[in-house]
Amino acid sequence: MHRWIVTLSLSLAMPGIAVAQAPADDPATIVAATRAAIAERYVLPDTAAKLSAALAAPEKYRGLSGDALAERINADLHTVTTDKHLGIRYDPKMAAMLGNQPLPDDDAAMPPVMARMIARQNGGVRAMEVLPGNVRMIAYDGFAWGTPEAEAAIIGAMQFLRGGDAYIIDLRRNGGGSPGAVAALASYFVAEGTPLMRFEMRGRPGEATTAPRAPFSLAGKPLYVLTSGGTASAAEEFATHVSALGFGTLVGERTAGAGFRNDLLPIGKSYVLSVSSGRAISVKTGRDWEGVGVTPAIAVSSDRALPTAQAAAMARIATMATADDKREAERLAVFYRALATGMKSGRALGDYAGVYGDRKLIVAGDHLMSSRGSRPASVLVPVGGNVMAPEGDPLSRFRFVEQGGRIVALEVERVDGSVERAARNAGQ
Fold this sequence. Notes:
The protein has 428 residues and is of the alpha+beta class.
């Protein structure tokens, strides 16, 4: 199994690698080398022939160089297929790093610049956060593998999740990576040896993956995985396992539909070609996701995926909570559901603005803001009728008292049941 982090699209610059301006390669040479590589490696031979034919008129590329040549080649390739793994990029730095060695290659040493990139990006684990209600979330932006730092990043992230009552893994910005990292992550949720994927490779023996042995298990607690239209490739493989093997719930948008597996090849001195050389097939479903993506169980826009997952997580936690914790969990579930659905207040926001004791409420744009003394102002989120909850304290409830058609008082109720009431200042 290869060890490289391979991102979705060659149009995405590799972080930490500056692109030098090298003399342009001869366009006829670049096009000919691109055609030869596609003919040899592209996963679908019939499509490979059509792709080669699309590049068969050398006069179209005469006089082009750098990014302009790459863009023209890509435009012609994509008249044949929408394959998101297929494309060429003008990238002298990456081409020099590859030398004559394509990626992946199990026998080649990882270039030091790539190993440093993986270490500096913490193996793709961008953030870890404890959310209200002890929901543990990691933002995982790339399935990096093949270095001690990449493996340690997954172990550390899973150890962090282990202390939560529910888990969220955010893949909305994850463009892919290595099947090795996918198998490692899945192993925390399924039994050792669980069949995962079968890879049908052009010109090379196929591969099958199974879940390795994990240091501990995270199975048995609610797991939510966030997706977007940018969730691609290896990230879609993990999403497929979540759905097909049933160890979590996908929340968000249908994924990118980038189901092929790719190689990176240097073309000339200044270009890098990503060519799809294999097809990934779920052992459980017998299908791939090329061109169709993975559909989440809870379909919402990607910007509302997190609060939607939080609401679902807190509802699940509430069903398992003791009496002491149940009230808190239910309140959080209501808050995040309102945030996810964009619930509206019972009246116009301006009707609530005013001064209530030492608390001041003002309208700022589309939000009602509450401030008190020198404390930072907090957005109030409508949770039903004339009831709101502060974003900074989602367990509290601001209940507005209406009398004679106007708001006359504010009652702030804490989760412990205590209530603080303040009349609205006269004349407001």
